[in-house]
Write a structure and sequence with these properties.
Helices cover 46% and strands 12% of the residues. The chain is an alpha+beta fold and 424 residues long. The chain has three domains: 25-149, Acyl-CoA dehydrogenase/oxidase, N-terminal domain (Butyryl-Coa Dehydrogenase, subunit A, domain 1), CATH 1.10.540.10; 151-267, Beta Barrel (Butyryl-CoA Dehydrogenase, subunit A, domain 2); 272-416, Butyryl-CoA Dehydrogenase, subunit A, domain 3. Strands 1, 2, 3, 4, 5, 6, 7 and 8 form an eight-stranded mixed β-sheet that branches. Strand 2 (171-175) and strand 3 (178-188) form a beta hairpin. The longest helix has 29 residues, at 347-375. The protein is globular, with a radius of gyration of 21 Å. Residues 1-9 have low confidence and may be disordered.
Length: 424
């Protein structure tokens, strides 16, 4: 059995210096909380979850005690009250120490961030607003008081629905008091471990056509009759997310389990596009982790490795310099993009968000690849975190709804065509 992996990073160095990036003291405190938690709790456990492809439920139980499960729950409801930017920066810090935990945490936090910060910036009539605020307090209470864990199953076979091209095939038929849900979700992170599955599905009455405008965001109790977790999980990377397949057969879901009113998710997807950028913090953290490891390794400071200093060789110095430039470019573009997140962003801000997504997902793996070549074969042993960082970093470019290819396609199209333009 491989020896436990030991974190090699400078525990006093935040990824984003609060003074340089003009963070508030409150932001700095929350981000520091996440960093210390990652160092103390996540790093020592990460290798085991990756090796066994088991879900890190202990990490999430410990998160509850730190308040991190409710990081985006408003302070008035017992949470830490983080905004979008603060959450992203905290998630990046967690990603430095365990990519699978940070990515799974994102799925949970979305169930508070989307009905919270995002929904507050979207128009609703007074009745819908009051009902939404009542319902989301129910979910907030479960998380704050009970430590309830929410998932966010998104993907379906074919990928078109997750990419936003067609309505979700998982459907919710309106009935008295709620909905009957039938469907299937693949790559459903936290499957078998979450207490509630935040399902995106299409509300569709008898004889009604499926429409993206009727997308619902429902919290389905994991123990509800008709919910089944199926299939195995043995992927290349992000093994600790345990993203098995979810089946829903005639599952009754009470109306109070709506995480957003009908139609509001569609508004969010079209008017708050940065909501889909929340997959990137994990990979920013992985890029930093690969760089941190390389520096420590070349300085002879990695526990368990020969205490040989390899830093005097010019090729090593040039490689580290190249990694540093790429990392700083990635972090700077990404920070600008998450700082622009809001309802109704400009065309340029949306294009920058696509560019940031593509840059983060591709550069995280590029930095990890360079780290392996620079450190050499010994660093690829499984008792060190670098090979896990490499495998996890490769997963980002294929994650819906904004894969690397989708980002390039949209940047090209939306640069060459103004809204409403065609070649006819």
């Amino acid at each position: 059995m491989p020896a436990p992996q030991t974190d090699t990073r400078d525990g006093d160095a935040p990824m984003f210096d609060p003074d340089a990036f003009r963070l508030t003291p409150e932001q700095a405190d929350l981000i520091s909380l996440a960093r210390r938690f990652g160092q103390r709790v996540l790093a020592p456990r990460a290798a085991r979850y990756d090796r066994e492809a088991t879900f890190p439920i202990e990490n999430f139980r410990d998160m509850h005690g730190e308040g991190l499960l409710s990081i985006c729950v408003p302070k008035a409801d017992g949470g830490l009250g983080a905004d979008y930017q603060t959450y992203c920066l905290a998630a990046a810090e967690l990603g430095r120490y365990c990519g699978a935990t940070a990515l799974s945490w994102n799925m949970h936090v979305a169930s508070t961030l989307w009905p919270g910060v995002l929904a507050d910036e979207l128009p609703m009539n007074a009745e819908d607003r009051a009902l939404h605020e009542k319902r989301r307090r129910l979910h907030y209470h479960r998380i704050v008081t009970d430590g309830a864990l929410y998932a966010q199953p998104f993907s379906e076979e074919g990928g078109a629905a997750a990419a936003g091209s067609v309505a979700f095939g998982t459907e919710a038929r309106p009935v008295d008091g709620g909905f009957i849900v039938n469907g299937k979700k693949i790559f459903a992170s936290l499957s078998g471990s979450a207490d509630y599955y935040g399902i995106l599905c299409t509300a569709r009455a008898e004889g009604e056509s499926a429409s993206r405008r009727n997308t619902l965001f429902l919290a389905i109790p994991a123990k509800a009759q008709g919910v089944e977790v199926t299939g195995d999980w043995d992927p290349l990377g992000m093994r600790g997310t345990v993203s098995r397949t979810l089946l829903f057969k005639d599952v009754f879901v009470p109306a109070d389990e709506m995480l957003m009113p009908r139609g509001v998710y569609f508004q969010a997807a079209t008017r708050w596009p940065h909501m889909f950028l929340t997959l990137t913090p994990t990979y920013v953290g992985l890029a930093q982790a690969a760089f941190d490891f390389t520096v420590a390794y070349l300085r002879g400071e990695v526990p368990g490795a020969p205490p040989v200093k390899r830093r005097s060789f010019p090729p090593k110095q040039f490689a580290v310099a190249s990694m540093s430039v790429t990392l700083e470019q990635t972090k700077t573009l990404w920070f600008q993009a998450i700082s622009e997140a809001r309802a109704n962003p400009t065309r340029e801000q949306v294009l920058r968000a696509y560019a940031a997504q593509h840059t983060v997902m591709e550069n995280a793996n590029a930095i990890a690849t360079t780290a392996i070549r620079t450190c050499g074969g010994h660093a690829m042993l499984k008792r060190f975190p670098l090979e896990r960082i490499y495998r996890d970093s490769r997963c980002g470019a294929v994650m819906l709804p904004w894969t690397a290819e989708i980002c390039l396609e949209r940047i090209g199209r939306e640069t060459l065509y103004k809204p409403g333009e065609t070649d006819d």
